[in-house]
Every structure is written in C-alpha cells, then in structure tokens.
C-alpha cells in the first residue's frame, strides 16, 4: 500500500464520482478505477458500492475513510513540524548570560528572537564567563552571552555589543555631586571588582584604565555579580567602574558618573573586554541554534 493509494481513495470518497475524482487527481478515469481495485484487494474488503448510476461508500469504507483522514492529518502535521525544525523554528535552546547583559542586550535579543520564532522555548541561566565556557564544553548550553576575550578555538565568538564605562559611587560620596569624575580622584578609594578568573577581560580593562591614570586600584572586595557589586557600593564598601548599562539597575544609595578623561579607543575592542560577545560551538549543526545566531547577528548591526 502506498500513500498515493490512500490519496486516491480519499478523493473518490469525497467526490463519489470517478470522473470528477480523476479530474481532481489529474489522472485518467481507468487508472483511478484500477488503483482503487488494487487497494481493495490488498485490504481484503470493498470500499465502494459501484453501479452505473452512482458510487457509494460501504460501511467498512466509511470507517476506513475516517481513519485514513486522521492519518493524513497526522502526516501533514509531521511534515510541517519537520520543516519548522529544519528551519530552526521550533525546539529548545539553553542560553547563558552574564548578569550585566540583563541590563542591555538580553531583553532585546529575547524580544527579537521570539518575534521571529515564537515556537522555540529558551531556557535562561545567569552564569559568569568561566561558567558559560564550562557549560559549553560539557554540552549543557547552546549559546552564551559573556565578556571577552575568549581564547578557546573550539568556539565561535563574535562581539555583538560594546559600551562605555562609568563610575558607581555611594550616594553620600564627596564626588557624588559632580557631573563627571576624574579617574585620578579615585586613587585612594577602595574598589569593588569582579575576580579576574571570572571576567579577565573586564577586570584587565579596569586595572589598565587606573594604571593609565597613575595608580593601581585598592581592591577592597570582590563580587561575582554586577548586582552584588552595586549593592556593595550602596553599602559604602567602595567604588566601582561598571558598564554604562548598569544605570538601568535602579539601586537606592548609588549614583553613576561619567569618567572625565577620555577612555582610550583600545577599551572598546573585543579582545580587551569592554564588550559582550555571543559564543557557540564551532561544530554546531542545530538549526535552532544557528537560527538564534543569525538573528542576533542581524540585530546587532542595529545596536
């Protein structure tokens, strides 16, 4: 039994007329009659009562029609699902992101991706850069949003967002009333930083900027999340240099100030770290993952 036999049967059952059914199927009437006979022979029961004046379904034919129509609907659904899967339009993705991405590009990425492929479920995990690399190596994650640089050639890594840096100060700080802050005025301040092992790019950038201003920062406390760093600033534990998008994190007791001296252009290239990059495996074959990568790359051109 072939699928075309079932298609011929359903068409004839709908028309109950060999001539009209043959016309719909774009075949001659005799071959249609022959195919129906072959199907009945294979099934072992008659599907139609035939007279010179009309064609009618047998009782067995009516039951068989109902079942076949269900099979055809399921087949059409299977074809549709297969096509959507091949285009990356359904499935599930596991996406990691550094905490600061939640205040700039992550909401935009999620809205944009969902508008194009609403059938894909995204499972999000807030992870540090080194945790994301570990998850990618273990196959626990599909795509990451992290702080470069990344030196492992097993991954594709593309910068998708760059931003300036600002100073986060306690609200009661003597410099809080100024419109901008000279970095040298922070030389004697306690600093709150990420541990270097978790975000070497951003850490090295901050240290480099301070050294260019003539001092090495006194690290009073380290924290692995941007929210924690800002909270510690609010608690007057120190000051912090943070990505500008952290202004979107409204925290009582903290003020954000632009840096007075121009930041060197080198601070904005991907291999220094004042950026967010998208990372995925080199050998990735999942259409859903590649769809996300494609959409984010296109969207990043507008940022």
TrEMBL record:
One of its GO terms (cellular component) is protein-DNA complex. Keywords: DNA-binding, Transcription, Transcription regulation. Pfam families: HTH_1, LysR_substrate. Gene3D superfamilies: Periplasmic binding protein-like II, Winged helix-like DNA-binding domain superfamily/Winged helix DNA-binding domain. Transmembrane segments: none annotated. InterPro entries: LysR_HTH_N, LysR_subst-bd, WH-like_DNA-bd_sf, WH_DNA-bd_sf. The keyword Transcription regulation applies. The keyword RNA-binding does not apply. It comes from the Bacteria. Residues 1-58 form the HTH lysR-type domain. Coiled coil: none annotated. One of its GO terms (molecular function) is DNA binding. PROSITE patterns: HTH_LYSR (PS50931). Belongs to the LysR transcriptional regulatory family. PANTHER family: HCA OPERON TRANSCRIPTIONAL ACTIVATOR HCAR (PTHR30346:SF0), TRANSCRIPTIONAL DUAL REGULATOR HCAR-RELATED (PTHR30346). This is LysR family transcriptional regulator.
């Amino acid at each position: 039994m072939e699928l075309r036999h079932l298609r011929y049967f359903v068409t004839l059952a709908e028309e109950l007329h060999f001539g009209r059914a043959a016309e719909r199927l774009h075949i001659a009437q005799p071959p249609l009659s022959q195919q129906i006979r072959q199907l009945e022979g294979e099934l072992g029961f008659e599907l139609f009562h035939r007279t010179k004046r009309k064609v009618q379904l047998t009782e067995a034919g009516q039951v068989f029609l109902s079942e076949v129509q269900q099979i055809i609907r399921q087949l059409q659904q299977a074809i549709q699902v297969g096509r959507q899967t091949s285009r990356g339009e359904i499935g599930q993705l596991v996406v990691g992101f550094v905490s600061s991405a939640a205040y700039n590009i992550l909401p935009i990425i999620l809205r944009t991706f969902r508008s194009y492929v609403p059938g894909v479920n995204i499972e999000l995990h807030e992870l540090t850069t080194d945790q994301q690399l570990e998850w990618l190596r273990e196959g626990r994650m599909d795509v990451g949003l992290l702080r470069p640089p990344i030196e492992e050639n097993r991954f594709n890594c593309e910068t998708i967002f760059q931003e300036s840096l600002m100073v986060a100060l306690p609200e009661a700080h003597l410099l809080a009333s100024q419109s901008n802050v000279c970095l040298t005025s922070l030389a004697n301040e306690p600093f709150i930083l990420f541990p270097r092992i978790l975000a070497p790019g951003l850490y090295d950038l901050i240290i480099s900027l301070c050294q260019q201003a003539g001092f090495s920062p006194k690290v009073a406390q380290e924290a692995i999340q941007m929210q924690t760093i800002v909270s510690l600033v609010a608690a007057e534990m120190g000051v912090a240099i943070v990505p500008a998008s952290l202004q979107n994190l409204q925290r009582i007791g903290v003020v954000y100030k632009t840096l007075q001296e121009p930041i060197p252009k080198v601070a904005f290239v991907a291999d220094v770290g004042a950026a967010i990059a998208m990372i995925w495996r080199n050998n990735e074959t999942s259409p859903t993952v590649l769809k996300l990568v494609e959409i984010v790359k296109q969207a990043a051109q507008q940022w």
